[in-house]
Automatic annotation (TrEMBL):
It is an enzyme of class 5 (isomerase). This is mannose-6-phosphate isomerase. Keywords: Isomerase, Metal-binding, Zinc. Its cofactor is Zn(2+). It catalyses: D-mannose 6-phosphate = D-fructose 6-phosphate. One of its GO terms (molecular function) is zinc ion binding. NCBIfam families: manA (TIGR00218). Transmembrane segments: none annotated. InterPro entries: Carb_Metab_Reg_Kinase/Isom, Man6P_Isoase-1, MPI_cupin_dom, RmlC-like_jellyroll, RmlC_Cupin_sf. CDD domains: cupin_PMI_type_I_N_bac. It comes from Pediococcus pentosaceus.
């Protein structure tokens, strides 16, 4: 039960932190700290900076702190358990949002362990391709960064479809003989019928594809 996701840090203010995991050693300690609202003792805070990648397996307590912008890729799921909401009030209802304390206790991994990733960077044509996560570590999605300083790079379909986010730069994508302009801030889908494509110019892209799960 739960939802696996990941974060690529697009920007982070000085001193920005993630809430990533917890400090409890046993389920009893976890339940005690949660039920007594000992959040400072419970939450594990991690300083972050732009360009970092965090894989968040299901069962991991997590939240973004102030001053952080991320690109999130996640498993398709309609389940979210809210452990703590920083006492925020819903502007539409004037009330605090519902919490799910017992469900959170039941599904949280104890003790917390950072996932062991195998991040690699390879030269592909004129680009550097950094693979942050893929099967077998992640059965739900793969995530890569394509860094093209100047030149061209070609790809062939690997998953059912491909999601692309343009983090920086400008350039072009060529599909089936047609060329389209790409600029920072664009997001698009390459559907299954598209089997091959190429990028040119100066671009930094995050590319994700669904896994087999």
């Amino acid at each position: 039960m739960g939802k696996t996701e990941c974060w690529y840090i697009i920007s982070a203010e000085p001193g920005a932190e993630l809430y990533y995991g917890h400090n409890a050693k046993t389920h009893e300690e976890l339940a005690d700290w949660i039920n007594n609202g000992q959040w400072d003792k419970l939450f594990r805070k991690v300083p972050v900076k732009a360009g970092e990648f965090y894989y968040v397996p299901s069962g991991t307590i997590h939240a973004l702190g102030k001053g952080i912008m991320v690109l999130e890729t996640q498993q398709s799921s309609d389940t979210t358990y809210r452990l703590y909401d920083f006492d925020r009030v819903d502007k539409t209802t004037g009330e605090k949002r519902e919490l799910h304390l017992q469900q959170s206790i039941d599904v949280t991994n104890v003790p917390h362990e950072d996932p062991k990733l195998n991040i690699t960077t390879d030269k592909v044509d004129d680009a550097e391709v950094t693979t942050f996560v893929k099967a077998p570590i992640s059965k739900y999605f793969s995530v890569r960064k394509v860094s093209l300083k100047d030149g061209e790079v070609s790809f062939k379909r690997e998953g059912l479809y491909t999601l692309v986010s343009v983090l920086d730069g400008e350039g072009n994508i060529t599909v089936d003989g047609k060329t389209y302009t790409l600029v920072k801030g664009q997001h698009f889908v390459l559907p299954n019928p598209v089997k091959e494509w190429s990028y040119s110019g100066k671009l930094e892209l995050i590319v994700s594809e669904p896994g087999e799960a």
